[in-house]
Amino acid sequence: MRTYPEQLAQKLAHSLTNTYLLFGNEPLLKQEALQQVMDSARAHGFDEKHRFTVDAQLSWNDVYDCCQALSLFSARQILILTLPDNPLTTAQANALKVLEPLLHNDILLILEGPRLNKKQESAKWFTLFAQNGVYVPCNTPDQRQLPRFVETRCHALGLKPDHESVLMLAQWHEGNLLALSQSLMKLQLLFPDGELTLPRLRDTLSRHNHFSPFQLTDAMIEGKPKRVVNILRQLEGEGVEITLLLRVIQKELFQLCKMQEYGRNGMSLGNIFDHFKVWQARRAPLTAALHRLPLQRLLGLLKQLSEIEVMVKTDFDSRPWSALAEFCITFSSPQPPLR
């Protein structure tokens, strides 16, 4: 059963399941979900905890041994397995399948790991545990989901932000949910009445938003030039190496070129996305980008990007960040801006 992080507390208050699968790319949500499950488990008498990391050095017999203690005097146990960021090997997947029938009512199993794609969610080892367990996807809210996420967190703490305050909190904490959590606790202490307004936020908080190079390329693909410029300024201010950004953008451009070439050769868009293992949520923005960026324009952008790279490496008096900003605006605009 799939349960989202904001629903987990209610689910645990109703009943405790023997298997929880906590997967996602947001550390704060995973840590909170893990803590909620463990607190509930302890309240039900699970007093002993064993934690293992699934890697090449793991002795699976140690894991299996935890499930063998069936004495009347044995403690109820929490068994936590942390899965690797890379896909499981066949041996690791098979070892997990062996574990499942060994579980019993005195074992509470928690599997935690990185964000899973649809294929991984359909893997036999995953469905084996998920069919009778609770799957909690702990993923970072995207830009569109973040205001609602902020509002929900505020209400859970008894805070009453107006609409503008919700938007400001979302903007100031994008990509940094830990800082958001800390800011909301601070506001809860400072304002017992719970009322949040723009003046109160400006007087109390500072910006904690954090962006990655991949959020930059996402905004470029989505065709959002204003957001692109904001992210680029933030990355420059944080001292991110411009050569790193060039490599990430170059990789995205190469993939778009390949997609256009496959399309010219008659491959359907769905098969192209399957070939490149594109996340379902990214398919609509990529479809729009492919319509906006024909192959000839992509090749021109690659040439422009290589010129910026030469500038970075040879002309130390140049202003490559300005050139990169102009490039990113061109990439994300419906058509090249008039000069």
TrEMBL record:
BP GO terms, sorted:
DNA-templated DNA replication
Is Mitochondrion tagged as a keyword? no
The answer to whether keyword Nucleotidyltransferase applies is yes
Q: Enumerate the InterPro entries for this protein.
A: DNA_pol3_clamp-load_cplx_C (IPR008921), DNA_pol3_delt_C (IPR032780), DNA_pol3_delta_N (IPR010372), DNA_polIII_delta (IPR005790), P-loop_NTPase (IPR027417)
Which GO cellular component term is one of those annotated? DNA polymerase III complex
Q: Which stretches make up the DNA polymerase III delta N-terminal domain? A: 20-139
Highest taxon listed in the record's lineage: Bacteria
Give the E.C. number(s): 2.7.7.7
Reaction equations catalysed: DNA(n) + a 2'-deoxyribonucleoside 5'-triphosphate = DNA(n+1) + diphosphate
Keywords of the record, alphabetical order, are: DNA replication, DNA-directed DNA polymerase, Nucleotidyltransferase, Transferase
> GO molecular function of the protein, one example?
DNA-directed DNA polymerase activity
Task: Please state every residue range assigned to the domain named DNA polymerase III subunit delta C-terminal.
Answer: 213-328
What top-level class of enzyme does the UniProt entry assign? transferase
Which family does this protein fall into?
Belongs to the DNA polymerase HolA subunit family.
- NCBIfam families hit by this protein: holA
Protein name as catalogued = DNA polymerase III subunit delta
